[in-house]
Design a protein that fits this description.
The protein is an alpha/beta fold and 593 residues long. The chain contains 20 helices and 22 strands. The strands form five sheets. The chain has an eight-stranded mixed sheet with strand order 13-22-21-14-15-20-16-19, with helices on both faces. The protein has a five-stranded mixed sheet with strand order 3-2-1-4-5, sandwiched between helices. α3 runs antiparallel to α4 and α6 packs across α13. The structure holds fe (ii) ion.
Length: 593
Amino acid sequence: MHILGISCYFHDAAAALLRSGELVAAAEEERFTRRKHDFSFPQHAIEFCLQAGGIAGRDLDFVAFFEKPLLKFERLLLSSLQTFPRSYRTFREAMISWLGDKLWIKDRIQRHLGIDPSKILFSEHHLSHAASAFCCSPFEEAAILTIDGVGEWTTASLGIGRNNHVKLLGEIRFPHSLGLLYSAFTAFLGFEVNEGEYKVMGMAPFGRPRYVDKVYKLIQAWDDGSFELNMDYFSFHDSPESTYNRNFERLFGPSRDPKTPFFTPASGYPSYFGDRPANYDELGKRNQYYADVAASIQAVTEEVMLRMARHVHGETGVRKLCMAGGVALNSVANGRILREAPFEEIYIQPSAGDGGGALGAALYMYHTVLGQPRKFVMDHAYWGEEHPAEDTEKFLRAAGVSYERFDDDERLIDRVVDALQAGKVVGWTQGRFEWGPRALGNRSILADPRRADMKDVVNTKIKFREPYRPFAPSVLVEHAVDYFELPEPARHYPARFMLYVTDVKPQMREKIPAVTHVDGTARLQTVDPCLAPRYYRLIQRFGEATGIPVVLNTSFNLKGEPMVNTPREAFRTFSQSEMDLLVLGNCIVEKRR
Ligand SMILES: [Fe+2]
């Protein structure tokens, strides 16, 4: 039985294909269209999934859409009407976009795949999130938490999964939303909503949570994890442009100008920002305020998530937890839940945001609706497209690029280890691209984590990221415990997917400065020899050569672009940046200078 899951028209569009309950392929649309967070109908991702499964659209038994468009439309209409005429423009824009395409998603799917409309089923947004985590977790029974901006009406839910059944037990409804609260601060701090949330999280350790009391003027939270936003401060419900209003600005002052570089006295002013501005000191002080605001919203988010986690534990009495929804990508909060909430183990799959809804809708359909038993555990993230070695060489030859092919893996790895040790920055692509927003060793840029200046080198040469955003370490799973405060690392699935931030052991911080954040933490990825053998061997060899089995791993893309998919895109990114070495499977291209 084949079930195709689809998510689109909101954040990240994606498709996922299940065959008899086992995942065959899953990918976000942005990897094919090169438009970051592309939310349009995922025709390319669908085509890829069908191709990977060797089937055509008409062979599908069911198609599962990740939410109920009519319910969502109802929410938009009702919340617009409540604040009419203030919401007139929101209302008008919603009507244009919904009457254009979104409401007719069933027709669109039917036309695109050529299947009978009776085979197209609609899940609910948070049920899709819940199933996306629980149904591919290793747990027979688990508590479930889903937290995001908003689905149809729900913004957070708690539930329980048992065998093949997922059930939601409670919910918080729009406009009360932890995700939208965090997004309001993302916008206030000068970042793009749905894109800059990681920047707020990275900025937080440069500040102190001095304004927690002020944040609690915006959100009233109770011990059972429930909360209400004070809507006097927000405008996401009645304005298409702004998430917060004048009252918010009266409380927190003017928002940060997105065009000014963000730095604090602690982050330093990197060379790639250009000359220091004349008002350097004043700007640094002002930015320190914004870092303190970031620390405050992060602290409140963690606090509310912890209460929710404790509450769902109390309600279910279960010792395992599954989490999903965009807020479950807050790896700092996840690390705290693991340490402080009464759960033995947590599972989060790598595409925890709306892209993962495609997977969740398909899993929900197969297990809970059709009653089929579970047998699939998502233990790695490599579900995207891969490109055969002969295609890679064909491309390189056609492009007139000189390259070296290594038929001996050890020689290839030695060559890369030498380059890393020499301070070079390496583009590393292998096999199928990753599912979800993190590069986990198949579309990665790698560097030596031992050099404190490597963060600036990678930023200056390629990423041009803000100086306060940390780079992540990939570590051999059996050595993770030597470097990071994460007992028994092998059993923590979220650590395989870079979804926990933990402390770096104090004595190890100066050994891996390029991947240790200002507060002594890191968002580690544990690497397993069975799941990513070549990447594992590379880090192992690097460890043999240097005594440190850790590499710096950041996603293979230029700033503002999605991660690369094809050899052509990898080569283009390599050429446009100052990366030194490019590995495409078993071929190496070196930059001549
Ligand atoms: Fe969502």
